[in-house]
Amino acid sequence: MSQPCSLLELLLVDARDLALPATRRMLEFAAAQAIPHGALRAGESVDAPIDHADALDFWLSGDEREWPFARAAAFAGVEEGRTLFASMDPVARAAAASAGLVATVPNLDVMERMLP
Predict the structure, then answer these.
(1) What are phi and psi of 40, to 5 degrees?
(2) How far apart are CA 8 and CA 4, in angstroms?
(3) I want to staple 87 with a disulfide (CB 3.0 to 4.6 A). Which of 3, 16, 70, 92 is the partner?
(4) 102-104 and 58-61 as β-strands: parallel, antiparallel, unpaired?
(5) Are 37 and 12 in contact (CB under 8 A)?
(6) SS3 17
(7) Residue 4: is it exposed, middle or buried by C-beta count within 10 angstroms (0-12/13-18/19+)?
């Protein structure tokens, strides 16, 4: 497992939070900075509709027990420690932190602090 560092290379958001203005601002900022960004789901099929999919580079789903953090990082070609995961769900944030990601509620300030 990689250690968190200060350089952001990937933004992941909880698909359940895509309609939140703070999440949308993070996705827009990532797009403007050319930072890969995607949405993740746990417990739902990737075939299920994703709202606001137009704002994403990709989306992935896990099974009902696991979030696909490692798969998303591998897909984007980055280390988990250079990945920011934003979710309103404290259980999801804890899972992300356990997987070596930087986890936060949707907050553009946190994202900006991870840039050079």
Answers:
(1) -120, 150
(2) 10
(3) 92
(4) unpaired
(5) yes
(6) helix
(7) middle
Contact assessment for residue 37 and residue 13, using Cβ atoms and an 8 Å cutoff: yes
Write out the two tokens for 62: 């896990």
d(CA 6, CA 40): 22
> pTM of the prediction?
0.86
**Residue 64: is its pLDDT beyond 80?**
no
Helix (H, G, I), strand (E, B) or coil at 86: strand
Are the C-beta atoms of residues 20 and 106 closer than 8 Å to each other?
yes
Tokens describing residue 81: 């420690």
Cross-strand partners of 13: 39, 86
Q: Is pLDDT at 50 greater than 90 in this prediction? A: no
Report percent pLDDT > 70 for the chain.
84
DSSP label of 19 = T
Taking the C-alpha atoms of residue 98 and residue 96, their distance in angstroms, rounded to an integer, is: 5
Could you give phi then psi for residue 94, rounded to 5 degrees?
-65, -40
- Whether 58 shows a pLDDT value over 90: the answer reads no
